[in-house]
Each structure stands twice: as C-alpha cells, then as structure tokens.
Amino acid sequence: MDPRDLLKPLPLVLIILFLALAIGDLVQTMIEEPPPTEVVETVVPRFHPEEPIIDFRATNTATAIEVLPIPEFEPKRWSVPTPRGVWAKGRSAELTLDLAAGGHRNLILECLPGGGKRPVRSVRLTVNQVDCGELKLQPGWRSYRIELPQGALRIGANSLVFSFKDRDDARKTRRALLIRRIALFTDHDAAVEIPRSPRLVTLDSKAERIALGVAGTLEIPLHLNDRTDALRMRYRFSSNLGDAEVAVVQMRDGDAVIKDAVKASVSADGKLSGSVRIPLHGRRGAYVLRIRATPGEPGSRLLVSSLRLTEEGDPTGRPWSANPLRN
Hints:
Layout: H1 3-7, H2 10-32, E1 46-49, E2 53-55, E3 66-67, E4 72-73, E5 86-89, E6 92-99, E7 106-113, E8 122-127, E9 130-136, E10 142-147, E11 156-163, E12 175-185, E13 201-204, E14 209-212, E15 216-224, E16 228-237, E17 243-252, E18 255-267, E19 273-279, E20 285-294, E21 302-311
Parallel strand pairs: 1-3
Antiparallel strand pairs: 1-15, 2-12, 4-6, 5-12, 6-11, 7-10, 7-12, 8-9, 8-11, 13-14, 14-21, 15-20, 16-19, 16-21, 17-18, 17-20
C-alpha cells in the first residue's frame, strides 16, 4: 500500500481536533468568567411616603427621585396640568391614586373654585364609592380638611370622585375646581394647611447619598448576576427615635416575591449611625432594594450613603459596580 494513501485523511482529523479544542476553551471561559451585566436597571429611585403630598402643578424640571403616587385622570373630566394645578370639569371628575399604604383618615384639599363672579359653591368627595361628605367652598385659594371614614382609603388603586351639584350649566366655562395639591394624613387632628416646601426625599448624586425626611419606603431597582456577593450601605439618623428596615426583594413579572426577601433592621436607639451588609450570594435577575424608614420626630432625617454591591471572593470588599444612586 502506498503510504500517501494513509496521510490523505490527516488534514481532516487535524481540523476536527482543532475545532474540538477551540469549543472546549470557549465553554470553559464562559463558565469561569461570565459576561458582566448591568447592576442597576434604572437610576431613578422611587419613594412612597406614608403620608403623601400630591402636587398637581405642571413642572418643566426633571426630578432625580420619583415621588409616588402619581394621579391618573379620567381625561374627559380633567384639564391638562398647568403651572397653577389641574381643572376638574363638568358635574363630576374622577381620579385614581395608587397607594403603597392605606388607612388615612384626613384629606387636605388645596383648591380654587371656578366660575368667576358665579363660582362653584360646594364639592362632594366620594372615595371608593364611600361618601366622605360635602365641603362649602369659599372664594379664592383655600385649604379644606375632609375627614375620611375608617377604611375608605386602602393599599392599591383608590378612586376619588369630586362632584359639583350646583355647577351652573349656563356658565360659559365648564371648569369647576382648580386643584393645586392634595395631602393625606393618618392623624385625625391633621393641620388644615399643607407644608409649603416638604422635603420628603433628596438625592445628592455627586456625594452618593440620599436623605429621607419623612416616613416612607424608598425603592431602587437592581439587577444581580452570578458575581454578586452582598449589598453594603452606611446610614445615619439625626434623631434617636428613628428606625428602618432594609430588604432586597426579588421581582417576577413586576411583582415582589416576598418569600425570597433578605432583610436587615436598624434602629437609632443608642446608635445613630452604622453599616448594613445583606448577603446576596447565589441570587440573580431582577431585584429591588427597599428601605422602609421612619426618620424619627418631625424634622429628622435618615441619611443613606456608600451604597455598593460587592463581588464574590473579593476579601477587600471593593465595589465592582457603580453606586446605584449614580449614573
């Protein structure tokens, strides 16, 4: 037999062997070094105050933090937001508020009756089909307190209907009431006036810190991958009456999976500042960081800083991602 006949299949064997080695190296590389993914899905935190103040005035400035709830209007019964507020039109106007907490017993309404020389004289409020009474309106800008029945406002979507039985159909304008702000309070004895400049929550991206000035829940969406080891943060209370619960909660199809939540609690009683470490090893996918805080007495604050995700196996705890409070 001619030896050259034995050598003819050799190039094909070498090609197959080379491809097998290349594929093996690629698979091994993917196992040892998974491709990096984005840690933060969005840089816009959300804040749900326990006693929200909803401002209906249109603004041209983008906010670093989205303060909820954002009202949803039945479009045929409301004007577009203006720098003065939003107009309720017709004999009744409905809006929806999606609340993270319920049980509020007082609603403060800051408004101006429409109609010029023949203004609307009264407004009746219905919350989730529960009659909450009628207000006698005075000329000009005023604040009115409406006591809400127990359980009228609840967690989730709430329907608020403003009715104007004395609106004059012959009046040229259909605008009945200009609403500037609404505030919800749990206390029966809530003041009639709404604070002028409530500092609910502030974000300082350069300093990488966020300050909570009222009780509520801060939410920062995260995306974790195989390298994530833990979440670290520092905190400081300005009052020894403050406390907070920090949790990382899994999200599935937009809903929180509470059973997979990893939590840590902190209190200012005896210790105004400290640090928190929440282990996240083995978790991956969409999560949200929730800080449910009560800063303390009025005027107190909770300051959160040095918020970092750390990498598995890094003994120094060095950050391997951008701070979630920054771009």
